[in-house]
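Subgroup meeting minutes
Present: P.N., E.W., G.H.
Scribe: E.W.

1. P.N. recapped why we're keeping a running log of single-chain structure predictions: easier to compare across weeks, and new members can see raw inputs and outputs side by side.
2. G.H. added today's entry (227 aa).
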Amino acid sequence: MHNRLQPIRIVIADDHPIFRDGLRRLLETEDGFKVIGEACDGAEAVKLARQLKPDIMLLDLAMPRQPGLEALRELSTGVQHSVRVILLTAAAEKRQIVEALQLGARGVVLKDSATQLLIKSIHTVMSGEYWVGRESVSNLVQYLRNLVQSSGEEARQKKFGLTPRELEIVSAVVAGYSNKEIAEYFKISEDTVKHHLSNIFDKLGVSTRLELALFAVNQSLPLKPIA
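Output recorded in log:
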C-alpha cells in the first residue's frame, strides 16, 4: 500500500460520460484518491497525461479516435512514461492482455469488476506490482510466459510452414531464452540456432525476437512449454 501524504492523482479516459461520472464519484469517496482530469478519447488521454502528470491513468481499451492500445503505446514511449496505466475493458482476450502488458500497461481490469477490486488494483499498481483481472502479479515475465503457453495450447494448429524443430525454437524464444541457452538446451551450435531463427523470421515476416513472440501469441502457434 502506498503511504504518501499526497493523494493518488487519477485521470479517467473513457468515451462514455455516464461511466466517467460514476467512476469519478466512486473514486472520490475513497480516502487518498483525487480525480484530476477526464478524457473522452485516446488522443485527449495522452494530452492530459502530458499536462497533468497523474499517478494513475484509467484507460478504456475501446475508444474512438485512438483506441486504448494506441494511446498506451504513445504513453509508454513519451516523457509521460511515469504515468501508471490501468486498462479498463469489457472483455479482454489473452492476446490483448499480453500486448497491453508488453506496451507498458501496469494493470488490466474488467469493467464489470466490483469497485473494491478496482481500488485494490490502483493500490497494487502504485506499490510497484501489476494487476490482471482479479489478482496482483508480482512476476510479470512468468505471467506472460504462462499466458503465451496457454494460448498455444488452445491453438488452432497453425504452423505457417514451420518445422517441428523451428516451432521448438520459437517456444524457447517466447520463453525468453537467449541463442546460447537455446543452443545448450537443444544440444546444437549457436550458428545452427541463428540459421533456424533466420528461416523462422523469413517464413513469418518478422524481424525481431519481440515481433516473433507477439506473432506466436497473436496467431496461437502451437508452442511447447520449455522446462
